[in-house]
């Protein structure tokens, strides 16, 4: 029997009806501009500030520490470029990040390098954990900001952010974390993490695309993103996208409510992992310990074949997976994340990311387990690499 199984929640998530319900009145009825002084504007301004407080509560932050943006990439750019700009004014021209960050962070750091900053890209171990000693060695009083993701989008590694934040602060650097993949999957509390800035994105937690947020701890100053009206405390001008902001508030609350269900998501993921690893010549990419990996993330390497071919054949069976981050999966380059963990090129090419959610059912997992093994067999039968390895008695 055929079905549709969406196992690509790290790329984007299905929009939840509760989120749309929360948004709708702000399209049809409560369409005022929050900056207007009249009744229609006041109604919008009250909703805006309530949404900010609801989101802050989900992160252990204060309302005035939440700034709305259009997406995770914008939040990443703002945090790093904004911290770099004010850092430079104080003679701080060094940035530390990791080799496995999302391109929204890596390309931002590369742009800053062209602008005269020195960037240290710290390595990771075989499971994707950043090398904290490398951070300790690289950091100095010239470091403006340390940017390390809370959890990786491809292999799900949960990084030791609180420990890294302490190192950053001991040297007078700001600590930024990209929590785009962590929010909704694991508890995220800005005070427990000890960060100065934290980025999140709505479409990873069931809002439509086009809304994100940046937490900036009170007292922390970074350069304004958009000069304009006084919106977002004068730091990011532009009339606020109220319907989407309302959707984000609801999505954040739902994300917190479903955290207890994530243990069940991890159980489904583990069953998928254990069964897939029974297929010959497969390996697990990323952390071994379940508690160090995002509950919905599984990344498996299938030797002698291409991840893109696997994903196309699964797509024909109604199963959506991906070979890396959605933004890079159109390119045939192997994943920079897998390469950084020491996975060889050929194995990185044959890797597939499954990212399931609390909407995934046991039947969905059964369906993947029914459809995937024949796909692997079929592709290996056509693979010159596989035939060569067999002929050479390597397998
Ligand atoms: N950071 C991480 C870790 C991500 O996974 C993504 C999206 O895949 C982003 C940032 C970018 O978020 P957005 O798509 O909202 O720009």
Average pLDDT over all residues: 96
Bound molecules: pyridoxal-5'-phosphate
Return Rg in Å.
22 Å
> How many beta-strand runs?
12
Pick out the low-confidence regions.
none
Biggest sheet strand line-up: 2-8-7-6-5-3-4
Percentage of residues in DSSP E strands: 5-15%
General form:
globular
- Which structural category do the helix and sheet elements fall into? alpha/beta
Count of alpha and pi helical runs: 15
Summarize the structure.
The protein is α/β, with parallel strands linked by helices. Helices cover 41% and strands 13% of the residues.
Account of the protein in words:
- The protein has 395 residues and is α/β, with parallel strands linked by helices.
- It is 41% helix and 13% strand.
- It contains 15 helices and twelve strands.
- The protein has helices at residues 17-23, 25-28, 39-59, 72-89, 103-114, 132-138, 161-170, 190-193, 242-257, 262-276, 307-316, 336-340, 345-349, 362-381, 384-391; strands at 5-6, 66-69, 94-98, 118-122, 143-147, 174-178, 197-201, 212-216, 282-284, 297-302, 319-320, 351-355.
- A seven-stranded mixed β-sheet has the order 2-8-7-6-5-3-4, sandwiched between helices. Strands 9-10-12 form a three-stranded antiparallel β-sheet.
- Strand 3 (94-98), helix 5 and strand 4 (118-122) form a beta-alpha-beta unit.
- 48% of the residues are buried.
- The mean pLDDT is 96.
- Bound molecules: pyridoxal-5'-phosphate.
- Residues 71-73, 76, 102, 104, 149, 153, 178, 180-181, 201, 203, 212, 325-326 line the site of pyridoxal-5'-phosphate.
